[in-house]
Amino acid sequence: MSDCGCSGDEERASVDPAYRRALWIVVVLNIGFGLCELAGGFVAGSQALKADSLDFIGDGSITLVGLVALGWSAVARSRTALIQGLFLGALGLGVIGFAAWRAFHAVPPEADLMGGIGGVALIVNVSAALVLARFRHEGDATARAIWLFSRNDALANVAVIIAAGLVAWTGKAWPDLVVAGAIALLFLHSATDIIRDALREISRRQGAVSG
User: Fold this and answer.
1) What structural domains does the chain harbor?
2) How far apart are CA 109 and CA 172, in angstroms?
3) CB atoms within 10 A of CB 206
4) Among candidates 71, 183, 185, 196, which has minimal Cα distance to 144?
5) Model confidence over 121-142: pLDDT tens digits?
6) Can you spell out the DSSP letters for 94-140?
7) The whole model's pTM is what?
8) Which of 127, 147, 129, 128 is nearest to 137 (CA)?
9) 45: Cα within 13 Å, side-chain hemisphere
10) Rounded distance, CA 35 to CA 58, Å?
């Protein structure tokens, strides 16, 4: 990505057993906790938690695709990263639309439950980011996309915790909706980076083949 300083030996990442194990850990953490957070978001009435849970589930699913793609050609992996970026962008637009709709039917969420789940989510995401940290300089667009997802998730969790505090303080729903929208904008920013990087790699590799 343009803002993550990622570059390096993509062939090593595609065959390293430790990298594969790291991806499986991230898949389990993201999908497993994402489902739990989604249920918690409905119980707490928090749009930010729901948005964050979709991020978890989406990241886990995309990471699983990235894991399968390690056995594919370099061009196919770059195309997979492009699909990942498009998926993330669509997810962001969907969250923004739903948050806007909820703004007209806003009910303050349960701040204590929201903050507690946000705290657990932060622990899960930091764990995933640490698992992937050593590989962010060793992979291609797919590896870098997965790293960027985990890093952004941790930032979103901090925002959820702050929003829970503001909900408790103000008794209003707007902090929850603002954070849900901010998470969606983070999706779109990351999607732009991933798509740009993947297109650049596809163009470079296709040029090398034709040359």
Assistant:
1) 10-210 (1.20.1510.10)
2) 8
3) 12
4) 196
5) 889 888 887 777 776 665 555 5
6) HHHHHHHHHGGG-----HHHHHHHHHHHHHHHHHHHHHHHTTTTT--
7) 0.67
8) 147
9) 15
10) 11
